[in-house]
Amino acid sequence: MPKQAATCPHCGLPMEPRDLSFEEMFGPPKLLQGRYVIKRRLSQGRIGSVYQAVDNQEGSRPCAVKELTTVALLDPHDRREATRRFLAEAAVWMNLAHPNLVRVTDAFSQARRVYLVMEMVEGTSLRALLEDRWKVFSEETVLHWAGQICDALDYLHRQDPPIVFGDLTPGHILVDSGGRIKLVDLGLTRLFMPAGYERSGYAAPEQRRQGRVGPRSDIYALGTILYQLLTRHDPTDHPLPSLRRLVPDLSKSTERAIIRARKKDPARRFPTVAEMRQALLGERPAPLPEVEPFVLVEGVQARTVNELARACAAHWDDGLMALADGRITNWLRDSA
Predict the structure, then answer these.
(1) pLDDT digits (tens, 9 = 90+) for 82-122
(2) Cα–Cα distance between 109 and 85 in angstroms, integer?
(3) pTM for this one?
(4) How are beta strands 294-297 and 300-302 bridged, if at all?
(5) Alpha helices (runs of H) in 15-138, residue ranges in sequence order
(6) Which residues pair with 101 in a beta bridge?
(7) For residue 50, what are the CA distances in angstroms to 119, 123, 334?
(8) Phi and psi dihedrals of 33, rounded to 5?
(9) What is the CA radius of gyration of the chain?
(10) Rounded to whole angstroms, how far apart are CA atoms 194 and 232?
(11) Please, which residues have CB within 8 angstroms of residue 11's CB and are 6 or more apart in sequence?
């Protein structure tokens, strides 16, 4: 019997193996691409998981690995096409850089799964915060987050061609202890969902009904997220109660902005996310989060570059170790 081709002659993607072991099919990976060592699972969803890992080719640099299974797509051609699109879109994300977007460093396919390697982000998703029914988010806090989300979406929409996030939900927005926002997941999960799957309550009407997405679809999703954060009301309920009834002291400018963002007709929404940001915040920049201190060793912290330099001078060996393992570089980037 001839040996199976390593790659597809038509699309150039790796051919799927005929037989996979039980561990390959159902168990968590241990080593990927000969460099990413999986430490533990951080979360698990319908078609994938996120793992904490280290990159052995980058001095054991911490990273996050998003794993997506392709088995929900029953047709082999659909799986190959989804994998091709995943790798193509991931390549675009690898060239992007914005403080409110998770950095993507690698993408590949292996054993009927695809993988996205990203920076490790410390934070809690807005979905997890919303699950705590005792938490109340002030309008000031919500606008603080909204400004950063708008900045990230505006950056994406201004790319040529525009990049649409396409799957903006509270679960894809992380916030750290200092209030800094990071958008994660990058909407690539949608490629491996079967046709006709139930879309989230955050998807715009044109996305739910026709599968069409554009920048104004992201605006609708953001308006829905802001509505939920302010009201704690499930956005899948229809019709939704009015903002004013649930939050009587909400400012008129915030109320008008959210109502306009959630118009069923895309043409009646904000033309751009920059205009939505203007309506929410005026000329104000998004408030900068408090800088998290860098902990060099127990009892030795720094909040500025000068303080860090003095701490490293006093603890030379610890400073060299922190530089070698990337902790200083990551702190400088996140605090920029």
Answers:
(1) 888 888 888 999 999 999 999 999 999 887 788 999 998 88
(2) 12
(3) 0.74
(4) antiparallel
(5) 22-26, 76-93, 126-131
(6) 183
(7) 12, 14, 21
(8) 55, 20
(9) 22
(10) 30
(11) 80, 81, 84
